[in-house]
Amino acid sequence: MSRTVQIRGDSAVFPGDACVHCLRPSVDTVVLTSVRRRTVRRVNVPMCDECIALRQSKSPAQLQFERIATVVSFLLAWAAGIWTYTSVLSWDAVAHSVAWPWAALLGVLAVEIAFGALYLIVRPWSRHFRSPEIRSVLACVAIRDFDWETTALLFADDEYADRFAQANQVANARQPAEQTVPKV
Ligand SMILES: [Zn+2]
Questions:
Q1: Rounded Cα gap, residues 21 and 35, in angstroms
Q2: What residues pack around ion ligand 1 (CB closer than 5 A)?
Q3: Distance, CA 117 to ligand 1 centroid (Å)?
Q4: Counting CB atoms within 10 angstroms of each CB, which of 30, 31, 138, 150 has the fewest?
Q5: Predicted TM-score of the model (pTM)
Q6: What is the 126 CA–ligand 1 centroid distance (Å)?
Q7: Domain definitions of the chain by residue range
Q8: Helix, strand, coil shares of the chain as percentages rounded to 5?
Q9: d(CA 131, CA 137)
Q10: pLDDT in tens, 26-58
């Protein structure tokens, strides 16, 4: 199903510099990033224009979900704002003529907080509506793990992972010993 290949450092050799997803010739790269504590590991991966575009795209179902979720979030946020405004005005302690600007201010604050909180829920939720093609291009390669000396890359395709492992073994064998010390 999927296979992990460990490389030295962060510079990987990709077979034929072909797109990791569809194996078409590619001149562009995407940067995989992984963060652990304060260390960031970046690996450049060759990918063709079509796959890069697909990687950055959203499926029609995802776009529709986001549109509906935005409208619902907006309405809920406004409801929270109006509720806050009327609640503040009904407090005995502030129920006098100068209270309404404070109630309005708290109402606006409630709208912003509610909309922000709903956005944090909607954004990850919308990923469930990705198309199989987009999922496939996003999952073809990822950084699984890394330390100072090595990076483990996870490939969705076993056959490609085997070719990748071979290409990197050959590249490492060619390097003189002093150059194999990690650059970090
Ligand atoms: Zn491609």
A1: 23
A2: 19, 21-22, 48, 51
A3: 36
A4: 31
A5: 0.70
A6: 24
A7: 3-56+140-180, 60-129
A8: 55, 20, 25
A9: 10
A10: 889 999 999 988 889 999 999 999 999 999 999
> What are the residues whose beta carbons fall under 8 Å from the beta carbon of 51, sequence distance 6 or more?
19, 21, 22, 26, 137
- Please answer whether residues 80 and 53 qualify as being in contact, where contact means their C-beta atoms are separated by less than 8 angstroms: no
**Residue 24 φ then ψ, to 5°:** -75, 155
N- to C-terminal Cα separation, the chain: 32
Rounded Cα distance between 169 and 151, Å, is: 14
Question: Residue 28 C-alpha to ligand 1 middle, in angstroms?
Answer: 10
Q: How far is the CA of 10 from the centre of ligand 1 (A)?
A: 22
Phi then psi for residue 16, to 5 deg, are 65, 10
Structure tokens at 149: 């000396």
Q: Is the pLDDT of residue 110 over 60?
A: yes
Give the pLDDT confidence of 76-92 residue by residue, as tens digits: 999 999 999 988 888 76
What are the two backbone dihedrals, phi and then psi, of residue 37, each rounded to the nearest 5 degrees? 45, -120
